Design the sequence.
């Protein structure tokens, strides 16, 4: 992983530490004197700051058989009839993350052809080949959102208009929202590949131009003391 990605992950962690201690500090220590015991308590609190976030939680076995998956009802007889994922996924292209299947490649290599309509097996998907590039102000590579790969799996109405207004640049998207399960995070981390340090470049796939430099903020540009 490149250096700036490491520092971004660190920065997020730091921001969370800072805000958690601020809350803990104002509630517990009043005027500002913090005892050793309180510090210990605060650091315990901080180390668990992220546990609410399922995207950052490490799952035990994403491909456990249905009765042990935690998603299916083991009391239901139907659960025991379902084919276990490890058996179903044999021969599909693999990844190092999520449920270890590369679902996009699986279609590209003709290993799978998802049924488009529950009742009519001859129904064809409406695939749209349109990449949307989202230029990122930070030094990470820009984001390319590919419609083709999505519309091979999903009908337009899964995203438009509830999650995204169908207009380039009309939506505010950022990593915090994604990690909290909004925007791209409505699916990524739940039904499609998760946000991990191994997947950054799947979305951040367009390198910055050679002559790229960070945009200066208004505050910097207008600062008369510069
Ligand atoms: C997985 C979610 C998803 C699906 C499914 C999806 N889109 Fe999009 N669409 C997006 C995103 C994200 C953008 C970019 C929005 C932005 O930049 O603010 C977008 C942008 C668009 C745009 C604007 C293009 C432009 O240049 O302004 C159109 C039109 C569009 N989509 C049509 C469709 C159609 C038609 C389908 C179905 C064939 C579809 N989309 C399926 C997520 C999706
Ligand atoms: C599912 C796709 C996806 C993945 C995976 C992903 N990102 Fe992002 N990231 C985005 C989108 C979309 C944006 C918003 C781009 C924009 O400004 O329109 C973004 C924005 C960012 C930004 C700019 C600041 C911000 O919060 O908006 C940074 C930095 C960033 N990502 C780093 C990372 C790192 C590091 C990883 C891996 C741990 C990662 N991203 C994984 C989609 C993704
Ligand atoms: C409605 C659900 C949904 C939303 C919202 C969504 N995705 Fe996806 N995405 C999928 C599915 C399903 C796949 C295919 C399965 C997989 O790769 O995990 C996919 C695959 C991808 C891929 C992999 C393409 C490849 O060639 O391997 C990228 C990149 C991606 N999404 C980026 C994004 C970004 C960026 C956003 C937000 C702007 C986003 N997605 C929003 C469902 C979604």
Sequence:
């Amino acid at each position: 992983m490149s250096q700036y990605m490491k520092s971004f992950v660190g920065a997020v962690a730091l921001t969370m530490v800072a805000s958690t201690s601020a809350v803990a500090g104002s509630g517990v220590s009043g005027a500002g004197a913090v005892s050793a015991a309180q510090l210990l308590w605060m650091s315990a609190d901080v180390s668990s700051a992220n546990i609410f976030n399922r995207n950052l939680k490490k799952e035990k076995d994403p491909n456990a058989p249905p009765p042990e998956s935690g998603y299916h009802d083991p009391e239901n007889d139907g659960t025991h009839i379902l084919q276990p994922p490890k058996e179903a996924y044999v021969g599909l292209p693999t990844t190092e993350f999520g449920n270890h299947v590369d679902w996009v490649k699986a279609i590209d290599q003709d290993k799978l052809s998802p049924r488009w309509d529950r009742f009519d097996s001859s129904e064809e998907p409406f695939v749209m080949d349109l990449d949307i590039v989202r230029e990122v102000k930070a030094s990470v590579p820009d984001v390319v959102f590919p419609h083709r790969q999505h519309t091979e799996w999903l009908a337009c109405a899964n995203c438009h208009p509830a999650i995204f207004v169908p207009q380039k640049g009309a939506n505010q998207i950022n990593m915090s929202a994604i990690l909290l399960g909004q925007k791209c995070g409505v699916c990524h981390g739940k039904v499609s590949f998760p946000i991990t340090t191994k997947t950054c470049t799947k979305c951040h796939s367009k390198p910055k131009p050679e002559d790229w430099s960070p945009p200066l903020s208004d505050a910097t540009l207008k600062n008369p003391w510069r």
Summary: Strands lie at 131-134, 143-146. Residues 5, 8-9, 134, 136, 138, 140, 143, 173-176, 178, 184, 188, 195, 197, 199-200, 202-204 surround heme C (ligand 2) (CB under 6 Å). The first helix runs from residue 3 to 28.
